[in-house]
C-alpha cells in the first residue's frame, strides 16, 4: 500500500495536547452506513403491515442467510446478544448453581447472562498477547460442578478453539462462543459461532452488523436450535399450535424492521470486512515499529478476524513513564478517536460481585459450596488487571473503514506522541 508514512514520521513538532497543530482534524467515518436500499427495505415492511416476525419472512430469511454466512446449520434470531447468551446457556443445559468458566475481559453481559439463569461465573485469565481466553488457566478452575465454558472472541479475533474444545471434551463441558464482536471471524477455516455447541452474536448499534439492537444464536445441533427457538417463542414448539406452550419460555423475537435492515446490512458486511482487515493488517505492520506499542497478536490459525476493535497494548515505560490516560488524551488531541476499552475486570464489578455472592450463598445453603475468593483483590488475574488498568487501547471498527491516508495519520499521530513522550 502506498502510504505516506515516511513523511508522517517526521519530527520536531509540538503535541496538539500542548497547543501544537493536530495531525488531523477531519472526522473518521461515522457508523452505521446506509442508503436508499435500506430505506426501501424498511418502507416495504412498514407498508406491508406485517411488522412481527411471525407474520413476515425477513427475520427467518436473515437467520438462514447469516447462519450460512457463518457456516452454521441453524440460526435462531434473538432480541440482543445478552439474551442470546442466556438462551444459549439454557439450551445447552446449564442449570442453576452450575459453574461456568468466563474470561473477565469482556462486556458485562458475558457474565450477567450466566447469573441471569442462576449459574455462577468463575473467572479465568486471558492471554497476554491476544487478550483472549487462557484455556490453561481455565482448566485450573474446573470443579465437579463446572458445566460450561464461554469463549469470547474479543475484538473479533477467535479464541483458541482447539484448546477450548479439547478442554471441554476432556471435562465434559458445553462450549458457548460469545461471538458478539466476531461477524465473519474464522478459526482454521471454520467461521465463528458454531465451532462450539452454540455461538451468539450481537447486532447492537456499535457492532459490525447493526440493526440498532438484535442478536442471533447459531448452532449445528438441531435439538439445541429447537430448544433455543422455543425459549425465544414463549415456549412454543416448532410445529405446535399458537397457544401450545410446552416449556418455560420468553418473547425474544426480532421485528421484521430489524430483519429487513439486517438483510440489507449483511450485503455490505463482506466488503466492509475486507476493508477493516486490510487496514488492520497494515496498522499491525506499521504500529509494531513504534516503541511501546504492541498490536494484538494474530494466531496463525485465525483465518478470519472481524476487527470489531483494533486492539493494541501500551507500555508506559517506553513513553517516558506517562500513563495510558495521558497517551489517550494526547492521541485524541491529534484527531485520532481511541479508548481504553474495558477498564474494570468483571470480578471487580459491583453487579457481578453482589449477584454472584447471592447464588454462591444459596449454593452453600443447599450443600453445593462454591469456592469464591473473599475479595476482588484475592481474585485478581494478572493479565486482565494489566489490560484493564494500564495497557489496553482500542480503535473502533468504523475507524478501520477509513482510507489509506487516514491509516497513515493514525501511525503518524502515535509516532508523534511517542517521540514527544520520550
Ligand atoms: C463480548 C460481548 N458480549 C455480549 C454482548 C451483548 O450484546 P447486546 O448488547 O446485543 O446485548 C456484547 C455487546 O455489547 C459484547 O461485546
What series of H and E elements makes up the topology?
Answer: HHHEHEHEHEHEEEEEHHEEEHHHHEH
- Percent in strands: 5-15%
**Extended strand count:** 13
Low-pLDDT stretches: 1-11
Structural class: alpha/beta
| CATH C-level of the domain at 36-263 | Alpha Beta
What share of the residues lie within helices? 25-40%
Largest sheet entry: 7 strands, mixed
Mean pLDDT rating? 96
Shape: globular
CATH topology of the domain at 36-263: Aspartate Aminotransferase, domain 2
Strand order of the largest sheet: 1-9-8-5-4-2-3
Number of helices: 14
CATH superfamily of the domain at 36-263: Type I PLP-dependent aspartate aminotransferase-like (Major domain)
Give the CA-CA distance, first to last residue: 29 Å
Write a concise synopsis of the structure shown:
39% of the residues lie in helices and 13% in strands. The chain has 422 residues and is of the alpha/beta class. The protein has a domain at 36-263: Type I PLP-dependent aspartate aminotransferase-like (Major domain) (Aspartate Aminotransferase, domain 2), CATH 3.40.640.10.
Describe how the helices and strands are arranged:
Blueprint: H1 5-8, H2 36-48, H3 58-69, E1 74-78, H4 81-91, E2 99-102, H5 109-116, E3 120-123, H6 135-140, E4 146-152, H7 161-171, E5 174-178, E6 186-187, E7 190-191, E8 198-202, E9 215-219, H8 222-232, H9 256-287, E10 293-295, E11 302-304, E12 309-314, H10 324-333, H11 350-365, H12 376-379, H13 382-391, E13 392-396, H14 404-421
This protein binds pyridoxal-5'-phosphate.
Pyridoxal-5'-phosphate binds next to helix 4 and helix 5.
Amino acid at each position: 500500500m502506498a502510504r505516506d508514512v515516511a513523511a508522517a514520521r517526521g519530527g520536531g513538532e509540538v503535541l496538539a495536547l500542548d497547543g501544537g497543530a493536530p495531525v488531523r482534524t477531519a472526522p473518521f467515518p461515522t457508523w452505521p452506513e446506509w442508503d436508499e436500499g435500506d430505506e426501501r427495505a424498511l418502507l416495504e415492511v412498514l407498508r406491508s403491515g406485517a411488522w412481527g416476525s411471525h407474520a413476515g419472512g425477513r427475520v427467518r430469511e436473515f437467520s438462514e442467510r447469516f447462519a450460512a454466512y457463518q457456516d452454521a446449520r441453524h440460526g435462531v434470531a434473538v432480541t440482543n446478544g445478552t439474551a442470546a447468551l442466556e438462551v444459549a446457556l439454557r439450551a445447552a443445559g446449564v442449570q442453576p448453581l452450575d459453574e461456568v468458566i468466563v474470561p473477565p475481559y469482556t462486556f458485562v453481559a458475558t457474565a450477567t447472562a450466566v447469573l441471569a439463569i442462576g449459574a455462577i461465573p468463575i473467572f479465568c485469565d486471558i492471554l497476554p498477547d491476544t487478550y483472549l481466553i487462557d484455556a490453561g488457566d481455565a482448566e485450573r478452575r474446573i470443579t465437579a460442578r463446572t458445566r460450561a465454558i464461554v469463549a469470547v472472541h474479543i475484538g473479533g479475533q477467535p479464541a483458541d478453539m482447539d484448546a477450548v474444545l479439547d478442554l471441554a471434551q476432556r471435562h465434559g463441558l458445553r462450549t458457548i462462543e460469545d461471538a458478539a464482536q466476531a461477524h465473519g471471524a474464522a478459526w482454521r477455516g471454520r467461521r465463528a459461532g458454531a465451532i462450539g455447541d452454540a455461538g451468539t452474536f450481537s447486532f447492537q448499534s456499535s457492532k459490525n452488523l447493526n440493526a440498532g439492537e438484535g442478536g442471533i444464536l447459531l448452532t449445528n445441533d438441531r435439538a439445541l436450535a429447537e430448544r433455543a427457538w422455543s425459549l425465544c417463542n414463549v415456549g412454543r414448539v416448532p410445529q405446535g399450535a399458537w397457544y401450545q406452550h410446552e416449556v418455560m419460555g420468553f418473547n425474544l423475537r426480532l421485528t421484521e424492521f430489524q430483519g429487513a435492515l439486517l438483510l440489507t446490512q449483511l450485503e455490505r458486511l463482506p466488503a466492509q470486512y475486507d476493508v477493516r482487515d486490510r487496514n488492520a493488517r497494515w496498522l499491525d505492520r506499521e504500529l509494531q515499529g513504534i516503541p511501546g506499542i504492541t498490536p494484538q497478536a494474530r494466531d496463525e490459525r485465525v483465518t478470519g478476524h472481524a476487527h470489531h476493535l483494533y486492539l493494541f497494548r501500551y507500555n508506559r515505560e517506553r513513553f517516558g513513564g506517562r500513563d495510558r490516560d495521558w497517551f489517550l488524551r494526547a492521541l485524541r488531541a491529534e484527531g485520532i478517536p481511541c479508548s481504553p476499552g474495558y477498564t474494570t475486570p468483571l470480578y471487580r464489578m459491583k453487579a457481578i460481585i453482589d449477584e454472584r455472592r447471592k447464588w454462591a450463598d444459596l449454593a452453600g445453603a443447599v450443600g453445593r459450596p462454591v469456592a469464591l475468593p473473599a475479595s476482588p483483590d484475592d481474585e485478581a488475574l494478572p493479565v486482565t488487571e494489566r489490560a484493564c488498568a494500564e495497557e489496553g487501547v482500542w480503535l473502533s471498527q468504523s475507524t478501520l473503514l477509513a482510507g489509506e491516508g487516514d491509516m497513515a495519520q493514525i501511525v503518524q499521530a502515535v509516532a508523534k506522541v511517542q517521540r514527544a513522550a520520550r
